């Protein structure tokens, strides 16, 4: 991980990383916390198939991914699911049909900074398969894939690999 050196408060090269969650300035006592960020991932499911996206940008470019993203300030996790599915897939969902499944910790590395996240997994079942117009800046393609055909190594993030390992056991 990239280590920050300069204090945003006093500007001196005096930030010290504790190796886990905070930077502290030895000159002015400023503390910068690297708190956990909330993120959602939605399993869009029709029968024994799920709708996956392929990432079109780093981190993990070209890997399979669940639709989702980071929770914005003053937004519930369910509202995030609705917003992200619309932004990424132009899919307008009814949040009352979201089913919370579990949460898993993850590390999202972006531009050499490790962001600790808590990934909240939801399931959203659809009555029929669909294809959507995708946001090409984030996603290069989408595909329906049979649950039995999911290769965990093709998935972008460790939390999703752990999630699907358990999810597939419970079918």
UniProtKB/TrEMBL annotation:
<protein>
    <submittedName>
        <fullName>NUDIX hydrolase</fullName>
    </submittedName>
</protein>
<feature type="domain" description="Nudix hydrolase">
    <location>
        <begin position="34"/>
        <end position="170"/>
    </location>
</feature>
<dbReference type="InterPro" id="IPR015797">
    <property type="entry name" value="NUDIX_hydrolase-like_dom_sf"/>
</dbReference>
<dbReference type="Pfam" id="PF00293">
    <property type="entry name" value="NUDIX"/>
</dbReference>
<keyword id="KW-0378">Hydrolase</keyword>
<dbReference type="InterPro" id="IPR000086">
    <property type="entry name" value="NUDIX_hydrolase_dom"/>
</dbReference>
<dbReference type="GO" id="GO:0016787">
    <property type="term" value="F:hydrolase activity"/>
</dbReference>
